[in-house]
Amino acid sequence: MASDAESAYSVAVNTAYGLNVALDLKGALPHLQLAAEQGHRVAQTELAALVGNWRLVGDISNGKPLPRDTWERLCAAVDLRAWLTLPAGRALCSQPRIAMIKRFISAAACDWLVARARPHLQRAQTYDPQSGATVADGARTNTSAEFVPGRIDTLVAFVRARIAAFTGMSPSALETSQVLHYAMGEIFAPHYDFLDPKHAGNARQVAEHGQRVLTVLIYLNDDYEEGETYFPKLDQGFKGRKGDVLVFWNVTPDGAPDPLTLHMGSPPSSGEKWLFSQWIRRRS
Length: 284
Known about the structure:
Elements lengths: L1 H16 L7 H13 L3 H11 L2 H8 L8 H8 L2 H5 L5 E5 L2 E5 L5 H11 L4 E2 L2 E2 L6 E2 L7 E4 L7 H14 L10 E5 L5 E4 L8 H10 L1 E9 L5 E2 L2 E3 L4 E3 L6 E5 L13 E3 L2 E3 L2 E10 L2
Helix pairs in contact: 1-2, 1-8, 2-3, 2-5, 3-4, 3-5
């Protein structure tokens, strides 16, 4: 029974994420329900989280007995339309193109993502522009955790689908999602997110996977001082509240790398900063 539950849960995650199968949020839910009915505790908490019933998430985690029809009712209550329908955004800058949506995800969902990422934090890396490999760089002192297979869950998959809906891009264009963590004083020095094709490693990346055209940052907490996403060429910084999302195009409307998008992850002067980071590719 345990192996059957784990198998059903894996199918649910893979289907919601589009990992080796066609992405299908609605099709993932019956598998998640089946796993929950067979006692898979993680599937049970994820069903409650997808509905937004965070009190029930706590009850499940604490082993509280629940009616047998709980999982069927939760599965039916997952509102796909709400997940993929967004409030209006607000343009913050037209050149480069920067916008924000308030309350993009709930505060409880933010806490969920932080908890999932925390055990996997390691020194954040950057692309080497010549080789295309990821390397440690003294210009980046923060840590990060990638949601690679084995760490993905259905809530992460639904957040990614929400990002795709917000940006109007295909979910398949999204790179591996990650959570960024900045302790007090940690920094990501000024840099570009686009891949400059003048360098060999970047050129290969762009040819194989497309240009990194969009950056999406969800603010997972706001109990820290300073720590803005700062654009030196604009002399302007942006900092959302918990659950807000900041998005900026790394290219101009004609697809060329935009030098005005030079930006940095400023260090928090007190507290710690958590962000959900999503890069999105597009082929020319």
